Amino acid sequence: MQHVVFNQKGGVGKSTITCNLAAISAWQGLRTLVIDLDSQGNSTRYLLGPDMPEDLPNVAEFFEQSLKFTIRDKGATEFIVNTQWEGLDLMPSSPLLDELHSKLESRHKIYKLRDALELLAEDYDQIYIDTPPALNFYTRCALIAAQGCLIPFDCDDFSRRAATHCWKTCRRSRPTTTRTSRSKASSSTSSRPVPTCPSAWCRS
Ligand SMILES: Nc1ncnc2c1ncn2[C@@H]1O[C@H](COP(=O)(O)OP(=O)(O)OP(=O)(O)O)[C@@H](O)[C@H]1O
Ligand SMILES: [Mg+2]
């Protein structure tokens, strides 16, 4: 199952929760992947430590290849690294995510992650996606791709309001139920696809 951990409010524990849930999942013997979509890279540092190499394959390179003319894109697995914990892998973040953001948005690459996750689901039992504190291209990608959404929030009134707003924002995306209907939207030549969230997690 694919889970996105999202709140457009910062500092509410998204990265901490992502890494801890993923660690528990791996400890339980499930093949687990974390995808770090936040250019701050906190989950990446949590999982790889402060001495991690700078030139790792990463999620930004995964997105970037869709902007280039290549005969055949590399599979998403090529952008995944092992962590020191057995069964826990990571698609690391990169500062390049910020640079690519507007290009990816303007070229309508919103379904790229969803399509990759459908293939990765064969290799991983649980996938956790950490997101930046914003409702931007990357968080929309993750919300569309995931089957479940966790919204962590602090226990004060401002945070509760932010969480309610966040939930309403997520639900405003038009839900669909099947891949077929979403594929139809993507292949339309007369109009651009409308990003949609899976109805299963909207209900839950
Ligand atoms: N359950 C918790 N109880 C107390 N402190 C926590 C808890 N979860 C996270 N923290 C602390 O809160 C701080 C922010 O956590 P974290 O980086 O996970 O938030 P975030 O939502 O990912 O932030 P950002 O929006 O900047 O990505 C960290 O110092 C973390 O150690
Ligand atoms: Mg974070």
What would you say this structure looks like, in words?
With 204 residues, the chain is α/β, with parallel strands linked by helices. It has one domain (2-203): Rossmann fold (3-Layer(aba) Sandwich), CATH 3.40.50. The protein contains nine helices and six strands. The chain has helices spanning 14-27, 42-48, 59-64, 96-106, 112-120, 137-145, 157-172, 179-187, 199-203, and strands spanning 2-5, 32-36, 81-82, 88-91, 126-130, 148-150. The chain has a six-stranded mixed β-sheet, sandwiched between helices. Strand 3 (81-82) and strand 4 (88-91) form a beta hairpin. Helix 1 runs parallel beside helix 2 and helix 5 (112-120) packs parallel to helix 6 (137-145). The two termini are 14 Å apart. 37% of the residues are buried. The structure holds adenosine-5'-triphosphate and magnesium ion. Adenosine-5'-triphosphate (ATP) binds at residues 10-16, 38, 40, 42, 133. Magnesium ion is lined by residues 14-15, 38, 42, 130.
Q: What key attributes describe this structure?
A:
204 residues; alpha/beta; Rossmann fold; six-stranded mixed beta sheet; 9 helices; binds adenosine-5'-triphosphate; binds magnesium ion
Mean pLDDT: 84
What radius of gyration results from the CA coordinates?
A: 16 Å
Please estimate the helix content: 40-55%
Number of helices: 9
- Estimate what percentage of residues fall within beta strands: 5-15%
- Please give the CATH class: Alpha Beta
Give the biggest beta sheet: 6 strands, mixed
Q: Please, how many domains?
A: 1
Assign the CATH superfamily. Answer: P-loop containing nucleotide triphosphate hydrolases
Order of helices and strands: EHEHHEEHHEHEHHH
Strand order of the largest sheet: 3-4-2-5-1-6
Specify the overall morphology: globular
CATH architecture: 3-Layer(aba) Sandwich
